[in-house]
Structures are given as C-alpha cells and as structure tokens.
Design goal:
It comes from Senna tora. It is a single chain. The chain has 15 helices and seven strands. By secondary structure, the protein is of the alpha/beta class. The protein folds into two domains: 202 residues, Alpha/Beta hydrolase fold, catalytic domain (Rossmann fold), CATH 3.40.50; 183 residues, Serine carboxypeptidase S28, SKS domain (Four Helix Bundle (Hemerythrin (Met), subunit A)). Strands 1-4-5-6-7 form a five-stranded parallel beta sheet. Strands 2-3 form a two-stranded antiparallel ribbon. Helix 6 packs antiparallel against helix 8, helix 6 crosses helix 9 and helix 6 packs across helix 10.
C-alpha cells in the first residue's frame, strides 16, 4: 500500500493466487498471512465456526473500505483518488470493491478474476478444458502420454509390489503411498504449471523455468526421459517439484500449511462454491463429474454446515453480467490470459467504454501484475502500458471533476 500527500493518488494492492481446487495464496487479507484476528492467535481464529464466521469476502471488503478511509484521513489525503489492484481471489475482491464501494475507489484492475466461476454460470469442465488445451497445444504426444497414464498408475498400484514400483518410479518418500495420492500429486503439478505458464522464469509457487508447460512436454517427448510412461511423467513432474534440483524424495503425506491457507477450506464451504474439477472424455485428466452433493458432504464433515451455493451471485452479481455492469459499474479492467484455467470464469469481452476486458492469448495467471523483467515479451509490455494508460485516464478525469 502506498500513500502520498494530499491530492496525489493512493493505491491499494491486494495480491493473490488461488489453488485450482481448494487453496488460494495472497497477502494482506483477513485470516491469511499475518492478518489474523483475535489478537493474532491463529488457533483461536480457526478454532470453530463462530470465530471463522468472520472470514468472508464481504468482511474483507469492509476491512479495506475502513482502512482506506482512515488512511486517507491520517495522511491528510482525503481528496486523493484510490485505485485497487488484485489478482485471482484478490482480483475478484478488487472488482467487487469497485462495485460495492464506488465512493472509496475510483477504479479497479481485476487480474485473472474468475467472478463468473460459480454455479449456473460456467461449466464444471471449463477449468480442466483449458489445462488440456495448454498441454495439447505444445505436443499431441505429450497430451496422449499424460492422458493414458492415470489408468496405468491405477493398474500398477493394484498389482503385487505395484506400489513399490510407483514409489521407485516417482521417487516417493517411504512414509506413505497410494494410487490416489500419486495421481493427486501429478495432477497438482499439471494444474499449477498451467496456471503459472509464464514467459519468464518464476519463483511464485515453486521455482520454474520460462514456459514450464512447454518444458514439461519436452521432458515427456524427448527420448532421454526413458521409454516407460512413468519415467516420462517423473521427468515432467520434476520440472514443477524439483526444478532447483534439491529434493531427494517427494512426500505425499505432507499436510502442512506453510502459507497459512487453511481458511480457504472454510470459504470454499460457505461462499466460494466454484464448480472446478470435472473432466470430460477429451480431458487430460481422468473423466469425472463435479457434483455439488460431494461439496455438501465435505462441508458437513469438516464444519457441520451447509454451503451457500448462490450467495456470491446474490451479494455481488454474476448473472446477465453484461447488462448489469453496463448499467451499474464503471472503471474496471478485467485482465485474463487464456492459458490460465481460471480465465474460463473471467470477463473476456468489453462490457462498456469503462468496463474493459484485456485478453492475452499467451497469458497465464495474473501475469500482468508480476514484476517486470527484461525478458518480458512485447505483448506483455504492451498490455501493461495499456493498463497504465487506462488508469491514468481515470485519475485525470477524477481531478477534472474535483475542480469543477
């Protein structure tokens, strides 16, 4: 967050990335990172439904509104315009903040913000369809190897000594292994790599090279990976899990929460009912059906509560989004990269002259908000310039109104 003297812009940044199935990463949000209520005592804050009840998107937005108003007052900057920024869940909050608090923020940059990824708005297969296309666009052979591997993993696990074959093939630590765990481990690598398929090296979730999806497929396709399927898969997974080369084995029983993300389970059971994980016959993942009933069962087991499947669209909207935002919203930029699976639930077309969609065919998850790099491709530099120009016009217009 940055504040300046009276009359100068104040910017509020909310940064995040959301796990495709159940977990987000972000900073400066209630209950995450160091923003823990109840005196900073995480055990108390996460202890039961009464304390976790304060964890919601609506409450987070109210936090920001209160903070901005007080900050501007304390900085003697009451006339300073505020623009909010966010990526992923933070991008959703940025867009919703502009809609709910137009008197506090003059505009929002909502990057990779899947505000339409809710029930009755998006197919449960949309997310995995994008991932499938990411890998298939790099190599048909790569796609076919991965697609055929799930059955081979399961069949191997069911054979005598098969689990040890899997353990040795994938360098799994000796504490725990199962077919489902290996498949989940591999799926996570494929999903996260697709999300963070950046054009430059990154260390966002794990250390990764530039264009990591391409690197995964190259590892599968090249003969040096070995002729067996598991050897090829291990070479691909190693790109995501061990690009730094320091891992000696991979722990499938690691349930630690190093980023402090446990609260997302609560949000995924109370308001963020996002239909993600279904896979059709063409999918790179095993065919499966996303069922709301499965989410209900999980939430009853975890928290003894019933999800609110339509709360987000009731609170913030989503249905008939073009007509609604054209009538009621302004000064929002929605950025989406089409290699990002979350783009399936994003705003991909302009709503009006001031609610603008910027779409990058080569873009990944909120790549526009990443630090600039000398190796950034020209298309990314152009997008950032476009965003800056649009935001500059909002600020100029604000000052024109202020002096009238």
């Amino acid at each position: 967050m940055k504040g300046t003297s009276n009359g100068s812009p104040v910017t509020l940044a909310s940064c995040s990335i959301q796990h495709p199935i159940s977990k987000p990463f972000w900073c400066s949000l209630r209950f995450y990172g160091k923003s823990i209520p109840f005196g900073g005592n995480k055990e108390v804050a996460y202890s039961n439904s009464s304390t976790l009840g304060f964890l919601s998107s609506t409450q987070a937005l109210a936090d920001y509104a209160t903070l901005i108003i007080d900050l501007k007052k304390n900085l003697s900057a009451t006339d300073s315009p505020v623009v909010v920024f966010g990526g992923s869940y933070g991008g959703m909050l940025a867009a919703w903040f502009r809609m709910k608090y137009p008197h506090v923020a003059i505009g929002a940059l909502a990057s990779s913000a899947p505000i339409l990824h809710f029930l009755d708005l998006v197919s449960p297969y949309a997310f995995t369809n994008v991932i499938t296309q990411d890998y298939r666009s790099e190599s048909e052979k790569c796609y076919q190897v991965i697609k055929g591997s799930w059955k081979e993993i399961e069949e191997t696990a069911n054979k005598e000594g098969g689990l040890e074959v899997l353990r040795k093939s994938f360098r799994i630590c000796k504490n725990y292994i199962s077919a489902d765990a290996v498949q989940g481990w591999m799926s996570t690598a494929l999903i996260y790599t697709a999300m963070t398929d950046y054009p430059t090296p990154s260390n966002f979730l794990n250390p990764l090279p530039a264009y990591p999806v391409r690197k995964m497929c190259e590892a599968i396709d090249k003969s040096g990976s070995g002729k067996d399927t598991f050897g090829k898969l291990y070479a691909a997974a190693n790109i995501y899990y061990n690009y730094s080369g320091t891992a000696t084995c991979f722990d499938l029983d690691d349930d630690s929460d190093p980023h402090g993300l446990g609260g997302w389970r609560w949000q995924a059971c109370t308001e963020m009912i996002m239909p993600v994980g279904g896979s059709n016959e063409e999918s790179i993942f095993p065919a499966s059906e996303w069922k709301y009933e499965d989410r209900v069962s999980y939430c009853q087991f975890m928290f003894d509560l019933q999800p609110r499947p339509h709360w987000i669209t009731t609170e913030f909207g989503g249905h008939n989004i073009k007509t609604v935002l054209k009538r009621s919203a302004s000064n929002i930029i929605f950025f989406n990269g089409l290699r990002d699976p979350w783009s399936a639930g994003g705003v991909l077309k302009n709503i009006s002259d001031t609610v603008i969609a910027i779409v990058a065919k080569q873009g990944a998850h909120h790549v526009d908000l990443r630090f600039s790099n000398k190796q950034d491709p020209q298309w990314l530099k152009d997008i950032r310039k476009q965003e800056i120009n649009i935001i500059s016009s909002w600020i100029s217009q604000y000052y024109q109104y202020l002096t009238q």
